[in-house]
């Protein structure tokens, strides 16, 4: 890889590293696992960057590589990556904006999401990130229709979990 491509990769990674952190929070439960997964995703992005043609946005591509890496590691007998527990997450809420009821609802939602399989978690994650179905389908490598159908099924699953 030439120096210009290297500099472009570093710049894009620095500007979009929050994507990787969000994925790590979704698939890990402690700081060490988070750091390990962050490093692994970064390595996979670096390895794949020469093949990045720019057909999609860098963020879409980073979501795809990051989620695939996390899911692959998660499936490999959960090596050192555990599903995130809600109590281990840190919320950055301004004190004056704190809403106990909202916090309880978030806790219930995270608990319900933890009962989903890894692909369903990725789908919910992208949906909650306000990605449209076109970008979700591109990121997950499925058709847009399939993304919509899966999301409707996941919504139904979450409703059953939250309202047994």
Automatic annotation (TrEMBL):
Q: Which domain of life is it from?
A: Bacteria
- What residue stretches are annotated with the RNA polymerase sigma factor 70 region 4 type domain? 108-158
Query: Do the record's keywords include S-adenosyl-L-methionine?
Result: no
Under the heading InterPro entries, the entry gives: RNA_pol_sigma-70-like, RNA_pol_sigma-70_dom, RNA_pol_sigma70_r2, RNA_pol_sigma70_r4_t2, RNA_pol_sigma_r2, RNA_pol_sigma_r3/r4-like, WH-like_DNA-bd_sf
Pfam families xref list: Sigma70_r2 (PF04542), Sigma70_r4_2 (PF08281)
Database matches in Gene3D superfamilies: 1.10.1740.10, Winged helix-like DNA-binding domain superfamily/Winged helix DNA-binding domain
Q: Which residues form the RNA polymerase sigma-70 region domain?
A: 14-80
Keyword entries, A-Z? Sigma factor, Transcription, Transcription regulation
Regarding protein family, the annotation reads: Belongs to the sigma-70 factor family. ECF subfamily.
> What NCBIfam families does the record point to?
sigma70-ECF
This protein is called RNA polymerase sigma factor
Q: What is the native source organism of this protein?
A: Flavobacterium ponti
Q: Taxonomy-wise, where does this protein's organism fall, top ranks first?
A: Bacteria, Pseudomonadati, Bacteroidota, Flavobacteriia, Flavobacteriales
């Amino acid at each position: 890889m030439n120096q210009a491509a290297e500099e472009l990769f570093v710049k894009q990674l620095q500007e979009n590293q929050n994507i990787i952190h969000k994925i790590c929070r979704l698939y890990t439960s402690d700081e060490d696992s988070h750091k390990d997964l962050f490093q692994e995703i970064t390595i996979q992005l670096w390895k794949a960057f020469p093949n990045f043609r720019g057909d999609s946005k860098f963020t879409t591509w980073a979501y795809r590589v990051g989620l695939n890496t996390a899911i692959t590691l998660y499936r490999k007998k959960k090596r050192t990556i555990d599903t995130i527990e809600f109590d281990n997450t840190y919320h950055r809420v301004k004190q004056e904006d704190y809403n106990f009821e909202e916090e309880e609802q978030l806790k219930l939602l995270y608990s319900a999401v933890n009962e989903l399989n890894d692909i369903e978690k990725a789908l919910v994650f992208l949906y909650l990130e306000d990605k449209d179905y076109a970008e979700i389908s591109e990121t997950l490598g499925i058709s847009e229709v399939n993304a919509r159908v899966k999301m409707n099924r996941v919504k139904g699953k979450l409703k059953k979990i939250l309202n047994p």
